[in-house]
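Ticket #4471: complex job returned nothing on first submit. Input attached below:
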Amino acid sequence: MKTMKWLIKRELWENKGSLVWAPTVIASLLGMLALVAIFLGKNVQFNDEGQAMQIGKVTIEGAMRSRIAETLSQAYVASAMPVFMILSLLVFFYCLGALHDERADRSLLFWKSLPVSDLTTVLSKVLTAVVVAPLITMSIGIVLSLVILLAACAFLLAHGTNLFGAVLGSADFYLAPLRLVGLLPVYILWALPTVGWLLMVSSMARSKVFLWAVGTPVVTSLLLLWAEKALHFGFDAGWFAANVVNRILLGVVPGSWLVFSKDTVSLPHEDNKLALPDAIFNASWSTLGGVSVWIGVAAGVAMIAVAVWMRRRREEG
Amino acid sequence: MSAIITASNLSKQYGKKPALDGASFTVEAGRIVGLIGPNGSGKTTTLKAILGLTQFDGELSVLGMDPRTQREALMNEVCFIADVAILPRWLKVKDAIAFVEGVHPKFDRSKAEKYLAHTKLSPDMKVKAMSKGMVVQLHLALVMAIDARLLVLDEPTLGLDILYRKQFYQNLLEDYFDEHKTILITTHQIEEVEHILTDLMFIQDGKISLSASMDEVGERFTEVMVEPQFIAAANALQPLSQRTVFGKAIMLFDGVQRAQLSNFGELRTPSVADLFVATMKGTYA
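Support reply: We reran it on our side without changes. The output follows.
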């Protein structure tokens, strides 16, 4: 346990720029943009039931008021969505470098001179990718969305509509971040095939890791497509692209599971309205009822095992 | 005395070229052993085998463990500094100390800090801001703070200036080495290590061609500045090598009685470098 703590610290020292500063800077920029839009913008609109209205001009009362308060307190976390999308890039490139950089800068032998097994080292990198990095990004995202929410409420207050009480008094306001963190297990399971694939390539490729990681599955898909179309092989290249290529490249995108299981799990949402956060939460967990996620987990674990073996056996120079 | 390393019949091939070809040797506790050989003779492969960094055939026991299967346990007792084991550029001095303290059960922070106090390194300094000599100082500080039983050094001072090199070996001898520790060292800078070695191993074409203590080496090998009139007689005793310095023939003999040789001229104990050159004759021919 103690060793793992230090290994994860080590990963954070090495990758502080991408895992901590990148999301912080992006969140700050988004926050500033949002604040500028809220306080200077003349066209802040709520689209509700097809009717656009400018909140700067009217005082909102009654059912409309509680509806806005409800939406805000349920969905405010969604305003940090761009930060969560950045997370997929961070995790993707973190995994690509995780086992390659130590070989490239020849520090591998230094790490290997310490009594830490290859399994523990690789696991520390997996944990950093699927637990530590998402938690950091989530915290930053939650802070950002809180800032935007409070700014929006302050703006409304300045125009005569006080939503502070309604929003802060709503249980959803407190549940929203918990729901987000509660999606982490789903994220981990769906991200494992991608993390495993990237770590495996990272442990194998001598150089041009990105090209190997992305090129191999894409070229394979094209070859299969060609074989299917030109040679009339009875193989479904589209299936391969959707079930293998996408899963090993896009699994680190938050929410990818809803796309991957769209045939089996549908999001209940009313027409023209955003799906409600608890519906997203429930649908996300119900994707774990399918078989495909577990096949992906098994494949991911197998590829991580290959990465451990490569780190153990591979000789440099 | 107990053997720290026992190797018998180590073999390893890279493709068709043998890197180790049945090398056998033992290293006793409390010794400083120099493993000396020309480029491509199997030095680094031997060290990698001892450190569990490569697969090989043959029997090898390091501190009673098999490096192929018990690497992690072995690394509690073994340290190494290699020219190729570079500290990562982003690492800070204080983080390096904290990390090794965190993962190594035998690390003593106060020793590392005491050693670093004599250098120009500061806790917040990053490796990328250091000269090569300073990086080696940091690495040595980390290693000297670990109470390991075996220290393996692979060209530790390559690329350092003479001040750093002298200081490195001085620190090693004065502050690190004691009768419970064993040091195995490879280097091409033979002149700088020969006075600290207690044992010498020559490796050639993947085989150990000489393994002896420095005392035995002194008894076995003798250099003679042969007077001109005795050259034919001296040649009859089959010297290992012969060179000429200021018009005088200097011959190196293996296992010839000193009393017998003293008739030919002035006797000297050969330097390890001369011995090395004589033994490895024809390696690149």
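Chain B touches chain A through 32 residues (CB under 8 Å). Closing as resolved unless it happens again.
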